[in-house]
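Quick start: read one record
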Amino acid sequence: MKTRLSHVRANVKDLKKAVKWYEAVLGYTVVASWPPERPNYVHFAHEGGAMFGLMESEHSPSFGRFNFYVDDVDRLWEELKDNVDVVEALFSTPYGSRKFTICDIDGNELGFVQDDL
């Protein structure tokens, strides 16, 4: 079976609080929410790849890791490392990338990776 991943979602306890964190700490921008009358879901602007969304859910956190590929992981590490819960500090992998992993305020793991160094 072939697949193409186009959308992933992390579950959060409090959507408004989580959105504030993603906007303030990571600089993400909400581009859509649903349902219009009382949103419990949002997704953020993205540049190709999978769309990333948040949904308020009693099943929080999602117990997964979401890896985001970035152009300058060293710069992002310097910006974030003192203001987030670090799971893995910045390191070089044996397969040619650099990465670090943090947790959002609900415990979802967010990895930031730069390939082709």
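The CA atoms of residues 59 and 104 lie 15 Å apart.
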